[in-house]
Specification:
three-stranded antiparallel beta sheet
């Protein structure tokens, strides 16, 4: 397999690649790789699969606070519902609790504080989804509200970052700017961005021998 990033391309080579992209993508209606399967109904989603025997359903209880300290979590009311198998908080996670793919800062379940509305605090596994949902919502979570930071400019001013600062760098950006014929400086404000998923986030997991797991997940 050849390594296309092994050599640094010249400015002329980069310009040629950019021109190719302009003629092959921009201004044209490019078909999604799996468009035919989606519109024909051939695409297989998790909900199209049969449930495993004795499969449990998981429901996550989300934070309703933008920023708060978790004082206590009482999961006893969850177990009052018939069919509940387990209730999980961060204290029940045996391995790494931070699942950030590139940098730390993405806890699987909230630890001590919640930093946004919708952060997962606990999860309930039950015989069906409705039971899991009712049980999860029955948990009593006591919060101490903290001052929320709701604006990116305010967060930058207060140095209130979700992650520690880090830099991904490739090439000599300073040199490129210094030799650029034109330089434009300004400020751009955009709204929040969310990927357009063709399927809701869902997974189906089956345990195997020797502690293994087979995971079927959405794209």
């Amino acid at each position: 397999m050849s390594n296309h990033h092994a050599t640094i391309k010249t400015q002329a080579e980069l310009a040629e690649l950019f021109a190719q992209d302009l003629t092959t993508g921009v201004g044209r209606s490019v078909k999604h790789d799996s468009a035919a399967k989606h519109v024909s109904g051939e695409a297989q989603y998790i909900d199209d699969r049969l449930e495993f025997p004795n499969q449990l359903h998981l429901y996550a209880r989300l934070s309703d606070r933008a920023h708060a300290r978790i004082l206590s979590i009482d999961t006893a009311p969850c177990h009052a519902f018939e069919g509940v198998r387990i209730v999980i908080t961060h204290e029940d996670v045996p391995g790494l609790k931070d699942i950030g793919p590139l940098m730390p800062g993405d806890p699987l379940l909230a630890i001590d504080t919640v930093q946004y509305v919708g952060q997962v605090v606990l999860a309930v596994a039950a015989r069906d989804l409705d039971t899991a949902r009712k049980a999860a919502m029955a948990a009593v979570i006591e919060y101490e509200d903290l001052e929320p930071v709701l604006d990116v400019v305010e967060a930058f001013r207060k140095k209130h970052f979700v992650l520690d600062s880090h830099t991904h760098q490739r090439g000599d950006s300073a040199g490129a700017l210094a030799t650029a014929r034109h330089r434009i400086q300004g400020t751009l404000h955009i709204g929040g961005q969310e990927h357009f998923y063709l399927e809701t986030q869902i997974s189906s997991v089956m345990p195997t021998e020797d502690g293994g797991m087979i995971v079927y997940c959405s794209t």
